[in-house]
């Protein structure tokens, strides 16, 4: 069982910002791709962003220019900075690693509403 510890979700107004954090075991974090998925009610889980061990990033088109994924190797933590949030960003956000075929965290709720 891979333990990915997420934090930082919550309720925010449209146009606001949130930062999600995910801490992973060092043996996994340093050698694997990390990322964030999200799942909105009634929709399939989708990849939001991922970051390689070398810092290469990829984003789903709907968040490009608004979200930034980063990793802190000293803290074994991956972040998702979310700016200019929209109601359609409302979802449960899951931290992800491709270690061992793929593992997800328990999820953190992000709600964008006025």
What do these coordinates show?
This protein has 114 residues and is mostly beta strands. The chain is 4% helix and 46% strand. β4 and β5 form a beta hairpin. It is globular and about 40 Å long. The chain starts with a strand and ends with a strand. 31% of the residues are buried.
Shape: globular
Q: List how many beta strands DSSP finds.
A: 11
Percent helix among the residues?
under 10%
- Secondary structure class reads mainly beta
The CA-CA distance between the termini, in Å, is: 38 Å
The count of helical stretches stands at: 1
Order of helices and strands: EEEHEEEEEEEE
Task: Give the strand content.
Answer: over 45%
Low-pLDDT segments: none
Mean pLDDT: 96
Largest sheet properties:
7 strands, mixed
Radius of gyration from the CA trace? Answer: 13 Å
Label this structure with key terms.
single chain; 114 residues; mainly beta; 7-stranded mixed sheet; 4-stranded antiparallel sheet; 1 helix; 4% helix; 46% strand; globular
Short overview:
The chain has 114 residues and is mainly beta. Helix content is 4%, strand content 46%. A hairpin with a 5-residue loop joins strand 9 (91-97) and strand 10.
Secondary structure: elements and pairs:
Elements (H helix, E strand, L loop, with lengths): L4 E3 L2 E3 L5 E6 L2 H4 L4 E6 L6 E6 L5 E3 L7 E6 L4 E6 L8 E7 L5 E2 L3 E5 L2
Parallel strand pairs: 2-11
Antiparallel strand pairs: 1-3, 3-8, 4-5, 4-9, 5-6, 7-8, 9-10, 9-11
């Amino acid at each position: 069982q891979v333990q990915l510890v997420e934090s930082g979700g919550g309720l925010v107004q449209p146009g606001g910002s949130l930062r999600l954090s995910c801490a992973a075991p060092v043996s996994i974090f340093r050698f694997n791709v990390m990322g964030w998925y999200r799942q909105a009610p009634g929709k399939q889980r989708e990849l939001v962003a991922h970051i390689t061990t070398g810092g290469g990033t990829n984003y789903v088109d709907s968040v490009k220019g608004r979200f930034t994924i980063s990793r802190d190797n000293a803290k074994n933590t991956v972040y998702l900075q979310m700016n200019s949030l929209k109601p359609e960003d409302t979802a449960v956000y899951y931290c992800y690693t491709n270690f061992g075929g793929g593992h997800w965290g328990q999820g953190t709720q992000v709600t964008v509403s006025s």
